[in-house]
Design goal:
Number of domains: 2
Number of strands: 11
Radius of gyration: 29 Å
Number of helices: 0
Strand order of the largest sheet: 8-7-10-11
Helix content: under 10%
Order of helices and strands: EEEEEEEEEEE
CATH class of the largest domain: Mainly Beta
Shape: elongated
CATH architecture of the largest domain: Sandwich
Distance between the termini: 72 Å
Length: 174
């Protein structure tokens, strides 16, 4: 594993006491599983390890030169729901559902942006495995409001900044 053959402890460790030990290692250049074993040696040259059988301590690594894709967001898709579905009441609620899909565990910061400048504020989303999660945001449009198109969109600020398409809807009741 490319480490030194011995390391000195800078201080005495009493029975029952714990001590963190840092050992610098280098994984082998060749693919495969590599294991390194160690024992502790007392100043009187007695060796011991862990547990009642005094097993050596060990580290095991799986070295692979295969290229691995980084995890991240694969897609953001929108679904717009109008409530009520038809007619021109005093207020119409538009709910934009954004379904975000990742290819593995991934955590990122994002916010909703919208045409009128009303942002959601920064939020964090975490995926523990590949999959999809759906989030939503609402916009209430009043009867007589401008017929101009409105939009909302997801903007990811990190760790990899990305601006996604806009979900556009019209006020059908000007």
């Amino acid at each position: 594993m490319g480490g030194l053959t011995s390391y000195s402890l800078p201080e005495t460790v009493a029975p029952g006491e714990t001590k963190d030990i840092t050992i610098y290692l280098r994984a082998p250049d060749a693919d495969g599983i590599a294991i390194g074993y160690w024992s502790i040696q007392t100043p009187w040259n007695a060796y011991f390890g862990a547990g009642p059988t005094r097993d050596p301590f060990y580290v095991q690594v799986d070295v692979s030169s295969a290229k691995r894709l980084p995890y991240g967001i694969m897609s953001v898709t929108y679904n717009i729901v109008r409530d009520p579905e038809e007619g021109c009441p005093t207020n119409v609620r538009y709910t934009v559902y954004a379904t975000i899909t990742t290819n593995g565990p991934y955590e990122f910061d994002y916010y909703w942006d919208q045409k009128d400048g009303n942002e959601s504020g920064l939020k964090t989303m975490e995926f523990t495995e590949a999959g999809s999660q759906t989030i939503s945001r609402e916009w209430m449009v009043g009867k007589g409001d401008s017929p101009n198109p409105r939009w909302m969109q997801i903007i990811v600020t990190g760790p990899t900044p990305q601006i996604y398409d806009r979900a556009v809807f019209l006020n059908e009741c000007p």
